[in-house]
Amino acid sequence: MYRALDAAIVRTAAHPTGLDIPPWPDLTSDEPHQVRGWRDWLATVWAIPTFAAAVTDASPALASQAHHVLDGREQRPRQVRRTVASTARYLLRATGRATPFGLFAGVAPARLDTATAVRHGGGHRAVARVDGSWLATVITQLETCAPLRQRLPVVANTVHWLRDGRLVAGLRQAPGAVPDSQPVEVSLRHTPAIALILDAARAPIPVADLADKLAAEFPGTPQPAIDRTLAHLITQRVLISSLRSPMTAPDPLAHLLDQLNLLDADQIPQAAPIVHSLKEIAAQLDHHTTDSDQPSTTVTAMTVLAAVDRPLMVDLRRDVHLTVAPLVAREAERAATALTRLTPHPFGTPTWRDYHSRFLERYGVGTAVPVLEVVNPDTGLGYPAGYRDSLLKPPATLLTERDTRLMALAQRAALARTIEVSLDEALLAELESAGRATVTAQPHTELAFRLHAPTPAAVDRGEFTLVVTGVFRAAGATTGRILDLLDPVDQQRMTEVYAGLPTVRDGALRAQLSCPPLYAATENVARHPALLAHTLPISEHHTPADKRLNLDDLAVIGDPHRLVLWSRSRCRPVEPALFSAVEFTNFTHPLARFLAELPTSRTAICAAFAWGPAATRMPFLPRLRHGRTILAPARWIMTAPELPGPDATWTQWVQAVARWREHALVPDVVYLGSTDQRLPLDLTEPAHLRLLRDELDRRGRATLHEASSADELGWIGGYAHEIVLPLASTTTPTPARATSVHPIDRNHGHLPGAGQWLSAKLYAQPDRHTAILGHLPALLSTWDTQPSWWFLPYRDPDHHLRLRIRLTSTTEFGPATRQVGEWAAYLRGLGLISTLHLDTYQPETGRFGPADAMAAAEAVFAADSTAALAQREYRIAVTGVEPLALTAASLVNLTVSLLGGHRCRDALADRPHHHRTRPGTRPAHPHPGRAPRRPRRRVGRDPRPARPC
After folding, report:
1. Number of domains in the chain
2. 209: buried, middle or exposed (CB in 10 Å: 19+, 13-18, 0-12)?
3. What is the structure's pLDDT at 56?
4. pLDDT tens, 425-475?
5. Which CA distances in Å does 679 have to 288, 657, 910?
């Protein structure tokens, strides 16, 4: 199902687990006599230059406290112990966690080769960057400089809607001097002046030219008022200046200086001091080193411009050369395949299945709905449930057969007092949620894992264990931000891999998403170089380019199996790629998340193994092994009530932990926490137990996972590590079908009383539908001239009959509503219906075509409903008529009428004798006007017109 790609990276801790350090300090009490021992321990570890530099970079406040302790200014036992305990946590992080963070861990490229080889060098390189919050503050200062602002090129923010006479700019970073406050939505009056500005700023235009256009169009407006309006729009990011770099610019300070040079900003007296300071800071960063006083000098210069806590960010390029043997690559492929087969959602998450269903219900099959219209919460669907600010209710979490089987596996392991469950092929097949159904796998993914083996030679012999530590949403998600740290040869190799990744649909255009995160500080980990030929910018300053996609060109189209993002100008599907691992819900712009998730929303996602929702609070979950791979490590939850309380002595507490460990089979070495926040602990070490007790005192519970021992890391020199390997699906992309694009806007559909249609919903049990239809002639007889009409059994979510009646004019709606209402009241009196709803009629122009084509389809619906009603009456009047036989004859007659005799014969001959709907899909309703045997929510068929677009 997956094949490994030669674009791996290795993430390693800066220090090995066997780092030569003194015995851990005694943290079990706050006695005054312990202060000297704590200070001696702190002095020893602070003498490790790389560790001291890492702590100073990560927490200047802790570094200051440490210096106060070391020079004797801090003598209070509790404060000294707190400083030593915090330093101990950082030391554990520096030796036990591979996630890149400052100088604690770094990255290096890895190659797929014929044998495993590891070499650790001494040429590690720290790369300094300016912090996103600091830079945002500086840019805001520059944008408020009036002479410079006049020269700034600006473009209109592409994410906005019109609502009740106001322009609403979508969620984005908070403006002003506090760049990391909560994201906001901006609303301002949509005046003719604002409309002119937005139209003129579709492409970059200098602010001075915009001001001239406004003055020419509105000659009575004072110039200061024009300047204030433009300044306000820039501050609110309705207009985006060229000083704010796209996310595809890994060095935003260099971009800023380039733009300032183009504008001759250093010739503007008000801006020149800032420009000169920025150039000095950039020069210092080019020669950044961690073993001198230069970092503090640079930070001092930066805080003069903008006072933020950490103006400087550092990434570490490790001098590690690693090649990975084919056996490891094959094992990673098998692991990714197993995780895909074990997914609880082989046809997309419940949230996306619900959204897909809502889309088809609202817009129908084949309709092209502009992206910004779909996600508009007022006139469209809004964002899927679980998205930031979404108003949709998440689908209910259900206990599945898969969950039940997994719980049984975990319980059997607990009863057998074993911490491992081995997953063979038979058990894997049993746990597959999709059963034997054909699923579409996501086209690519990224697998993070560590290897356990004593030596590289053991790895090559297959004597290793692969431990999955993470699965990321797409290839390049974690590696995109660190590519500029690598050598040009490695950058080129990986870029070529990313450019050639497969797509869900054959012929889809891959475009690189570029969108600012919701917080300026998050830009530190969200930037990535341009890797694809085409880009899709969102809320960014951009220049016109043939290979830049525009949001207003993109539409969403639905068919019964998936949603597709479609370029109307290029007549092909688009699959955006986001080369960032920034968390989606709270930190990523919801539109960027929507566009990134949509193409794979109905695929089987390769994700970290999940035991199911019922397992989240289980006190123990066993290790899950598949071949050489550990898909999920053993996990324990320790809660405070299981152990003595705060008043218990240290000895009592330690003894209780020992009993709990023996009962629960907890190993000596564990990780405290999970994912990127885990901390390695040795539960035989009192100082580590003290850290565990502190965690329990703070949170009331602690999550523990089994961890790697020093011997298991021998092959890589004892370093905590993760290998991140991209993988591509080997399955054939879904064929691209010819697609007829029929775009609509927010005014699509006939509102009650505002069009020539009356659409009524009669809620009733399915078994009552025939009786209700038997009374339909009485309703139709109330018209002098019988109108065109049709009915449709439906469930959304309750069973009902939909009745649609064409009116001759909008003035007829009132009398027609009275007629339908009186008829419905009569039916309710007979006990046949519960309620009547009047609804908007949404013609399915995507399926049947617009204008005359839709009118022709509606004529067929009406004729078909008339025939269906006659057949129902015939079944009642004539005894011995088999309903299925009558339905079959009717369908054959309908097919012959629409296709012709020969084509109908060929179609029936090609159909399997024992046709069954493919598992995992809903059977399509044969026709909108004909009731299925058991009414259910209708999902339409794929349109197959002769020509695309």
Report:
1. 1
2. middle
3. 93
4. 999 999 987 666 778 999 999 999 999 999 999 999 999 999 999 999 999
5. 30, 18, 62
Q: What is the pLDDT of residue 286?
A: 87
> Does the pLDDT at position 938 exceed 50?
no
Name every residue whose Cβ is closer than 8 Å to that of residue 354 and which is 6 or more positions away in sequence. Answer: 384, 385, 392, 395
The model's pLDDT over 52-89, given as tens digits with 9 standing for 90+, comes to 999 999 999 999 999 999 999 988 999 999 999 999 99
Q: Answer whether residue 421 shows pLDDT above 60.
A: yes
CA 557-558-563 angle, to 5 degrees, is: 90
Longest dimension (CA), the chain: 105
Residue 632's pLDDT is 97
Q: In the chain, pLDDT over 70 holds for what percent of residues?
A: 93
Partners of 321 in beta bridges: 119
Name the band, by pLDDT with cuts 50, 70 and 90, for residue 937.
very low
* Residue 377 belongs to a domain: no
Three-state SS sequence of 120-177: ECCCCEEEEEECHHHHHHHHHHHHCCHHHHHHCEEEECCCEEEECCEEEEEEECCCCC
Q: Where are the beta strands (DSSP E) in 643-741?
A: 669-672, 679-682, 701-706, 721-729
Helix, strand and coil percent figures for the chain, each rounded to 5: 40, 20, 40
Q: What is the pLDDT of residue 9?
A: 98
Task: Name residue, tokens 């926490």.
Answer: 673
Which two three-digit tokens encode residue 779?
């309703």
CB 640 within 8 A of CB 696: yes
Q: Report which of residues 933 and 908 the model is more confident about.
A: 908
Confidence label for 919 from pLDDT (cuts 50, 70 and 90)? very low
pLDDT tens readout for residues 541-559 = 988 777 899 999 999 999 9
Answer for the pair 743, 483: CB distance below 8 angstroms, yes or no: no
* 365-380 pLDDT, tens digit each: 999 999 999 999 999 9
Report the C-alpha gap between 455 and 432 in whole angstroms: 36
Can you tell me the mean pLDDT for 332-349?
Answer: 96
Residue 940 has pLDDT above 60, yes or no: no
Burial of 214 (0-12, 13-18, 19+ CB in 10 A): buried
Residue 756: how many CB atoms within 10 A of its CB? 15
Domain coverage including residue 830: 749-910
Tokens at residue 173, please?
């970073």
Question: What mean pLDDT value characterizes the chain?
Answer: 91
Question: CA 837, 840, 842: angle at the middle one, nearest 5?
Answer: 135
Do the Cβ atoms of 375 and 412 come closer than 8 Å? no
| Dihedral sign for Cα atoms in the order 373, 379, 385, 391 | positive
- Residue 741 is predicted with a pLDDT of 73
- Residue 855 within any structural domain of the chain: yes
DSSP H or E run through 187: strand 184-189
Please tell me the distance from the alpha carbon of residue 462 to that of residue 628, in angstroms, as a whole number.
9
Rg for the chain, CA atoms, rounded = 33
CATH of the domain at 768: 3.30.70.100
The reply to whether 622 falls in a domain is no
- DSSP run (H or E) holding 320: strand 320-324
Could you give the angle at the alpha carbon of 837 between the alpha carbons of 831 and 842, nearest 5°? 135
**DSSP assignment of 757-778:** EEEEEEE--GGGHHHHHHTHHH
At 420, phi and psi to the nearest 5?
Answer: -135, 140
Tokens 């898909």 locate to 631
CA proximity to 932, closest of 942, 920, 945, 922: 922
Is-cis flag, bond preceding 344, omega within 30? no
DSSP codes of every residue in 383-435:
SPTTSTT--SPPPPP---HHHHHHHHHHHHHHHTT-SEEE--HHHHHHH-TTT
Domain assignment present for residue 847? The answer is yes
Partners of 728 in the beta sheet?
3, 444
